[in-house]
Every structure is written in C-alpha cells, then in structure tokens.
Known about the structure:
By secondary structure, the protein is mainly alpha-helical. The chain has helices at 41-52, 67-81, 106-120, 123-137, 140-153, 157-171, 174-188, 191-204, 208-219, 224-234, 243-253, 267-290; strands at residues 5-11, 21-28, 59-63. Among the domains are: 5-104; 241-290. It is built from twelve helices and three strands; from the N terminus they run E-E-H-E-H-H-H-H-H-H-H-H-H-H-H.
Amino acid sequence: MTKQYYVYVFSDPRPGKGSCERLVGKGHGRRAYDLKNGRPLRFIRFVAQCEKLNLTIPRKIIACASEDAALKLEVKLIAKYGRLDLGKGTLYNLTNGGDGVVGASKAQRAAISIRQRARMADPARRAAMSAIQTTRFTDPKERAKQSRRLTAAYADPVRRAAASARSRARMADPAQRAILSVKAKARFADPAQRAALSIKQTAYYADPKIRAASRAIQLGIKKPAIAESNRRRRGIKMGPMSPERRAAISRALKGRPNLKNRGVKKPWLAERNRLRAAQLRQVNDATVDRT
C-alpha cells in the first residue's frame, strides 16, 4: 500500500494570538495528530499551555501527490510564515523544512545531526528537556500508553529479530563495548545510584513469584510455579546462603577438579545447585517409599 503524504499546519488557539501558525510539518498516517513526539521544545510547551486552558489546537492538512511534493510544500510554507527563532515569523520550527528523515540525503542528515548536537550541547536546554520528559513519564496514563505501544511493537517477530541483529552488531564492536563499560562504571561509582538500584532490586525480589522464578532458573527448572509449589509442600528451605554455608562448600570443594577450568565461573553456586538437586531427589525418593 502506497503511503499518502501530506503537509500539516498547527495554529495557535490562545486568546490574543490571532490564530497564527505555530508549526509546519510533513508526514503520513497519524503524524499530524501526534503533538509531542519529535517536536521542538517551544511547541511542546505551547501544547502544555493549551491543555491547561482546555483549548484544542487547530490543524490544517494538505494532501500531496508524493513525498517529494510534500517536502517542497513544507519548505514553501515555512518560508511563508517565518521561523520564530530567526525573528522572521511565528513558527516554532527549527529548520527550513525539506529535511525529513524519510528519503533525506546524506548531506541533509548530516546537517540535521550538526544542528541537533549544537542545541543539545547547551546544559540549560538539556536540563529543560529532561524535566519535561521526567514530568511526562511520572503520569501513570502516559507510562501505560508507552508500555502498550512498546509491547505491541515488539510482539512482531520481524521487529524483534531486527532489533536483536542491531544490538548484536553494535556489541560486536570493541570500541562500543568499551564506551558502554566506561558509562556503566561511572554510573555505579555513584553511591546514590547504587543505593537507588539496591532499593529497586529489593522491591523487585520481594515478590514471591519473582523469587521462585529466580530459584527455578538457577536449578534449570522450566516451570517455576510448579517448582515453588512442590518446594513449599515438601518443606524444603531454599533461602539465601549464609557465609558459613558458603565456607563449608568451599572447604568441600578443595581437592576436587577445578570447576573454573570447565567454564564454571562461580564454583560455590554450581555446588549449591548440585546439593539442592540432590536434596530434591532425596525428598522424591522418600515420597515414593511412603506411597
């Protein structure tokens, strides 16, 4: 199905503004009805003010025969109404148009990248955008909306495969891995960051189902719910190991083949899993004897 491209124009409904034009853009599908994603900061603030005043932002949609025609019309209308940041008009647009990501040339993409980097180099601008995003995602409705959108997007096997391929290609680059490693180390060097993560992890593992699933993964059990039910019915304790228990396992491992040489990174964990599996077998044998 061929995409139907168009040019849209948002006007200002606030009293005393004379219904002046505020944003011109090119798109297809539902792009003209998205007021926040990928919009200039001034326009996002303008949308917030209109929402507080319960005002509907008027939009005019002009159908175009092709994407190229839409790009040309976008440039023409931006030139006609003028950009506010240049002092030539009322538009919140930050470019002269014609630089849409779809179908853009390498030169246009490079120009967009340079402009975006220059804008985001301003600490005040970054702080303002961060505050907007933080406020936005503290709204439960917005969080639920984004969750539904991402869940639907990644339900597509083709999209998941493409995302996986991109991630694998990126992580195959040693330079990229080094950059991520430096960022992670810097983040976790902050005591406040570590404390926040600890609180999140504690809350996460406070859920019995999560703990049961974690134990099942350690033991290689495919059905955590059944495993947890059996554990409780049989009265098997599988809580965290004490330092004394770890020390006892360490002493028991002395003189045995080195598990690290066989690819086991945590010998005490492998031994714990072996002992737990043996304990489960003993319980099963006892159950069979009673029957």
